[in-house]
Amino acid sequence: MDIITEKELRHRRGLPAVEPNPTLKFMDAETQKIYSEMLSPPNQYFVIDPFANLYLLAAGGGCVVAFADAFLEAWKRVGEDRPRLVAFWDNAGPQAPSLKLESGLSLIGKYDAKQHLFGFNTEAMELAIKADMLLHVIGHELGHGWCHTDPASAMSNPGAVTPELLKAREDEANAKAAAWGFDMRALEHWGNANRKRFAEMTKNPAYLNEFTPVV
Length: 215
Ligand SMILES: [Zn+2]
What we know:
Layout: E1 3-4, H1 6-12, H2 29-39, E2 43-49, E3 54-59, H3 64-77, H4 82-92, E4 98-102, E5 109-112, E6 117-121, H5 122-130, H6 134-148, H7 163-179, H8 184-193, H9 195-202
Parallel strand pairs: 3-4, 4-6
Antiparallel strand pairs: 1-2, 2-3, 5-6
Helix pairs in contact: 3-6, 6-7
The site of zinc ion has 4 residues, from helix 6 and helix 7.
């Protein structure tokens, strides 16, 4: 698993380099240390698949390498649907897609269409690894991402986010993930068995409700 700096990632993506803050030079050593810690969080970029512009932003340690390996494995399962996603991200700009593993994220896993962002809650992914559910969680979110490539999908519908639209988005993501060989029924059962823990990990009371049933 290769790790690259933000500078290197920006170079690979053809983005302009960010210059270091020159005012730091005039600070005493202690203040400089505090500022440099503030300005560079412990996040690193882990290379998943450079051809797809897939780099994981995460703090090191814990489950991050296992997560990055699983993401690559799930991405391989997308198989012949990969070129369509890569072309879609290419067209969306050099930042697309974004992939983040984040402690305390308010959702277990998410796909944000506006930012082409896949986000995952670190603590919940540690639980998913133990339960052998990680690939299925990632497969579900990749399903949302794939649906976004279809202008007629619920994910591409820019209308008001009603419960019906949310359910349509879950159904289409589950259908696509299942077609790739991910087990959405097992994911639903695992999700419902861990709702209380998810609500604690995310501080999001929505997890006290049942997950959208897999049809
Ligand atoms: Zn979903």
